[in-house]
Here is the input.
Amino acid sequence: MALRNIITDKDPVLRKKSRVVTEFNERLHTLLDDMAETMYHAEGVGLAAPQVAVLRRAVVIDVGEGIIELINPKIVYESAETIEDSEGCLSSPGEYAMVKRPKKVTVKYQDRFGNHQEITGEGLLARALCHETDHLDGVIFKDLAEYMLEAEER
Ligand code: NI
Here is the structure.
């Protein structure tokens, strides 16, 4: 495993749409392992492949319940009820914003072996699932911000 460099939101790569993963091979596993290591090292709760400059639809998340790897994630259900909370991103160091997200989401995805899976998350997990899936379409949390937070508000 190896640490990868996290690009910032000033890099236009983060605005590109990522490609679907079709090969569930050693190369993908190395990417996922590296992404997990990079996320933990940076003390984040989620990381999407474009943040390490790889335009593939792959995401890792750990909101304190263990690692979740999502390949080709697709949100198939969003609750009407939303929660507004502060949010940040490893690609936007030091910046936080209030962002409204669905309270609960269901995501269909593939695991590292290509098996089809489904996960339902609430609260922070729902937020992370939305935030990381957005990265795969070049969307960052600041695009959705109700307003940015000042340092003392975080
Ligand atoms: Ni992010």
Notes: The CA atoms of residues 7 and 24 lie 24 Å apart. Residues 89-91, 131, 135 surround nickel (II) ion (CB under 6 Å). The two ends are 33 Å apart (CA to CA).
